[in-house]
Every structure is written in C-alpha cells, then in structure tokens.
Specification:
The protein is an alpha/beta fold and about 375 residues long. The chain folds into two domains: about 70 residues, no CATH class; about 220 residues, Class I glutamine amidotransferase (GATase) domain (Rossmann fold). The chain has a ten-stranded mixed β-sheet with strand order 1-3-2-4-5-12-11-10-7-8. Strands 6-9 form a two-stranded antiparallel ribbon. Helix 2 packs antiparallel against helix 4. The protein is globular and about 60 Å long. It starts with 8 loop residues before the first strand and ends in a 15-residue tail after the last helix.
C-alpha cells in the first residue's frame, strides 16, 4: 500500500510455509522444570506427570496462561520461574525435574515444539536511497494487541512524516540474510516469546553485528523465562524482571540523562508519563549509553526497586546500533509527544550506517 510519493508501507501477507520447521532451538532439549510450560503441555507424557505430581501448578495462574496455542503465556514461563513466583515447594520441583528428565523426547514432541515457528519468506521490494525499516511483530508469548497496534501506527506515522520506507511482518521467515540486507533497521514491536529458528537467529545476529540497526520497545526485553542468552545478555543487555501490580499503571517521572546523545535531541530534562513500569534482572548501564532513567521516588516500584533505574538506552553490538525502551504498554504512550520524539530520534540514529556505532566514553570520576 503506497502512502504518498516518498513512502511505501506494506503489510506482508501471511504465507504458507513450504515445509514444517525443524530447527527450533529447543527441539532436542530434555524435558525439565526449565522447559517452557507449553512444551510440557504439548507432550502427553509430560502433561500426565504434571497432572499427577503437581496439580497445584494449574491453579497457580488463570487457565488462559496455560493455552498451547501461540501466542501464549505458557511459552514464556517455565516451572522453575513459576515455582519462584508462587512459592511452590523446592523439594517438589526437584522431584518433578527428575521425572521430567527421564522422559524421552519423541519425534512427535519435536514436531510440536517447532510448530509455533515459521519459515515463511515474503517477497519484498523497497525503494532505494532512503531509510528502510522492518517492523517485526512475530509473537509467541504474551501479546497485548492494543499495545502492538498503537506502536505500529506510531512508527508508520513517523515514517510517513520522515519519508521512510516501512514493511511490517509477523513472520520469522523474514529473518534471512538476503531479506535483512534490504533494511537499515529492524523495529521489534513488543515481541514476546522465542520466535526465531536457529538459522533465523544466526541471520539476525549477523545482521546486527555487521551494522544493522535495532529498535525495540517494552515487551521486547525478554520474558520471565528466556531461551536465547545472546538476545538478553548482549543485544538488550538485561532481561525483564517484572512490573508493579498495585497499581499496575502509575504516573512516573522520566528523567533524561544522555543529553549529548542524538536520541535526546528535543526532549525536556524530565516529564511525567503513566505506564506499566518495567524493572530488570540486572542494571543495563554497564556497556550501555543510558538515555533516560525512572525517578523511583515518583512512583511505587515496591520490591522491584532498582535504585539506579535505566528505562531507555543504547548499545553497540559489533557495528550495529541498538536502542531499547521499556516504555510502551499503554497505547496512549505512543501518542505522548516527548516519547514520540525519543522513538523517532532512536529510529533515525539506529538506521544510520554512515559511521560505526560510537564507542562509549566512561563517565568522569
């Protein structure tokens, strides 16, 4: 669909995969309490063990969390994390782990595990000579439709205003070297769950390391259980730990720290937003250039307080430029003028291939 003379916006149609995916990352992994719950539920033998030995697992969360159809929360949670969240007995988890590990991984199990991935490769034609962006929306874990839709619309409006070319895809098959080299940056729009096959992971990793840009918002920071260490440890630099629930959405003060960074151009020193505020398993500051932090005195993080609380930052991964922002659960955040400015600046920065990703300058003192 063409929008104006300078912009192409295309929503790629759902294609039919020529053959089933066979190279999903956890295909051959033994059953255990570290398996995604969805893989246990898809196996009749593993599910029977859960129903017999740990029936309380199914009452720990609402039934919708145990769906086997992607997107599903069961793809981003394992029993080990669930036990920690719900204070389930450690000795029960140890015994359960031993029973699960004794199960064989059958051919049917492998097919079921890989079924939520795809290798559907779209045909893409984009104009040359302008920033070219892929908005990537494949989600196997938690999908909040209003958030995804609002973010996509905001990026499309930015693109129309700036004359950027944009393609939107929810297919992992777009992650091939030939397709990725057409884009200056990839925007991960609230992507949750493990979504790329081993070959797709390799293509995406190489794309970033060779100078491709990456912009990610909110739910793209990893999940309660994440199955790709490079993504959380190297690319994003940390992992989602949780967010307050009492209340879930709060006003908080966003403090702009990286005043000299191009992404901070046009931003005030601070502003107040209402959103679901993420905390992270580790402070991403080491190896990152922090753009903005949260003033934890302006809201109630509770047990998730971090002290120093970055909420938006950049990283250099190889030659690639990486930006992540934890803001963006509420659709209204994508209409906040300051946040829109930050995201627009971030896309422009990430998509710039004119120079290598700038090395970090250690803070004085």
């Amino acid at each position: 669909m063409a929008v104006g003379a300078a912009l192409m916006l295309a929503l790629l149609p759902a294609a039919v995969s020529a053959k089933p995916v066979t190279d999903c990352a956890l295909r051959d992994a033994p059953f255990s309490t570290e398996s995604p719950i969805v893989d246990l539920l898809l196996s009749p033998a593993a599910k029977a063990i859960l129903e017999t030995d740990a029936p309380d697992i199914f009452t720990a969360l609402p039934p919708r969390f145990f769906s086997t159809k992607a997107p599903t929360f069961a793809a981003i949670l394992n029993l080990k994390a669930l036990a920690k969240m719900k204070n389930l007995p450690a000795d029960k988890m140890t015994a359960l782990d031993a029973k699960l590990r004794a199960l064989p991984v059958t051919a049917a199990d492998k097919v079921a595990r890989c079924a939520r991935y795809d290798d559907d490769r779209p045909t893409i034609t984009l104009p040359k000579g302008k920033p070219r962006l892929l908005i990537f929306e494949k989600i196997n874990g938690f999908r909040d439709g209003p958030s995804v839709d609002a973010a996509r619309a905001a990026f499309q409006v930015m693109a129309q205003r700036k004359g950027w070319a944009v393609v939107v895809s929810d297919k992992g098959g777009v992650m091939t070297p030939a397709l990725l080299r057409q884009f200056d940056a990839i925007i991960w729009n609230n992507v949750s769950g493990d979504v790329l096959t081993l070959a797709q992971r390799a293509a995406f990793k190489s794309y970033i390391e060779q100078g491709g840009g990456y912009v990610a918002v909110h739910g793209s920071s990893g999940d309660p259980s994440t199955f790709w260490p490079w993504y959380v440890d190297t690319l994003v630099g940390t992992q989602f730990a949780g967010h307050p629930m009492d209340p879930q959405f709060q006003d908080a003060k966003v403090v702009v720290e990286g005043r000299s960074h191009p992404i901070a151009a046009g931003l005030p020193d601070q502003w107040v937003m209402n959103d679901e505020w993420y905390s992270f398993t580790a402070n991403p500051r080491p190896g990152s250039a922090v753009i903005a932090t949260l003033d934890e005195g302006s809201y109630k993080p509770g047990a998730l307080a971090m002290g120093d609380h970055p909420i938006a930052w950049t990283r250099c991964v190889g030659k690639g430029r990486v930006f992540y922002s934890g803001i963006g659960h509420r659709p209204a955040t994508y209409a906040d003028p300051h946040y829109v400015t930050m995201l627009e600046n971030a896309v422009a920065w990430a998509a710039s291939r004119r120079s290598a990703c700038p090395a970090l300058t250690p803070p004085a003192g």
